[in-house]
Design goal:
3-stranded mixed sheet, globular, membrane, cell membrane, transmembrane helix, G-protein coupled receptor
């Protein structure tokens, strides 16, 4: 990795400098992170183990939970460890790796949410053609495209970060490495890079949100032709998806679709969509989905029964 700067490490200032608040941050985010991992891993294991959750919707939910776990892991462990550290040093290479992971798994979540919306659109608006359109092979191809698209996006982000020369200072006023706080430290005019960054990340966030909202409006409009029972089930599923979309894209667009200015609330907004949303997603999808809850009950029942027979 070529380094065109004199700075070889950065210091993350984190969310606060107050010793008491640091301890609170450790406790709160440790609980949130553990909850995120347990919740998402439970969904992953349930979908993999259950024969009743073999539809494309749960195929995509599996990858959403996987993306959530990795997305949260790209920032949360560092924040938790740094909350108890005196010197929160991150090397240049570690910083670039975090930029890559943050954007790779964040973009993966965006693409999976779009695929879930496509799946619901076909299931509700084209029910007779659903098995042919959303076949297993098609779903696998769509997920592979999502992985490739996420990789390209994150490579572009890292390439932009690698262009930045750092001559000092090396204090990052954030709890993680991202292009926006790094731009403030660069020893160059960052206007064009910021424009490229906003065009890349901002356009992905905004266009994806618009596409998702339009697709769900079309889906909800088409439900008027369904039976009361079918309408209720579809509304429950779509409502869960819409809540997740709003919770993720609201903060995401706030950060990535504006001029190169920073606000005091930026760090907390970033916390919400990188740590808060991955924690809430399993709760939203399990509490509002009877099939997932039933599959989890069966899985635990089988587990407890097999343990008692030993």
């Amino acid at each position: 990795m070529q380094q065109n700067h004199s700075v070889t490490e950065f210091i993350l200032l984190g969310l606060t400098q107050d010793p008491m608040k640091k301890k609170m941050i450790f406790i709160i985010f440790f609980i949130l992170y553990m909850g995120t991992m347990v919740g998402n891993l439970l969904i992953i294991v349930t979908i993999k183990s259950s024969r009743t959750l073999g539809s494309p919707m749960y195929f995509f939910l599996f990858y959403l939970s996987l993306a959530d776990s990795c997305f949260s892991t790209s920032t949360a462990p560092r924040l938790i460890v740094d909350s108890l550290s005196v010197q929160r040093i991150i090397t240049y290479n570690e910083c670039m790796t975090q930029v890559f992971a943050l954007h790779f798994f964040g973009c993966m979540e965006v693409f999976v949410l779009i695929l879930m919306a496509i799946d619901r659109y076909v299931a509700i608006c084209k029910p007779l053609h659903y098995p042919a359109i959303m076949s297993r092979q098609v779903c696998i191809i769509l997920i592979v495209i999502a992985w490739i698209g996420s990789f390209i996006h994150s490579i572009v982000e890292v390439a932009q970060a690698l262009k930045l020369p750092f001559c000092g200072p090396n204090l990052i006023d954030h709890y993680c490495c991202d292009l926006q706080p790094l731009l403030k430290l660069a020893c160059m005019d960052t206007y064009l890079i910021n424009l490229e960054w906003a065009t890349n990340s901002g356009a992905i966030c905004t266009s994806s949100f618009v596409i998702l909202m339009i697709s769900y409006i079309v889906i909800l409009h088409s439900l008027r032709n369904h039976s009361a029972e079918g309408r209720k089930k579809a509304l429950s599923t779509c409502t869960s998806h819409i809540i997740v979309v709003i919770l993720f894209f609201g903060p995401c667009m706030f950060i990535y679709t504006r001029p190169p200015t920073t606000f005091p609330m930026d760090k907390m907004v970033t916390v919400f969509y990188t740590i808060g949303t991955p924690f809430l997603n399993p709760l939203i999808y399990t509490l509002r989905n009877a099939e997932v809850k039933n599959a989890m009950r069966k899985l635990w029942h089988i587990k407890i029964t097999s343990e008692s027979k030993r």
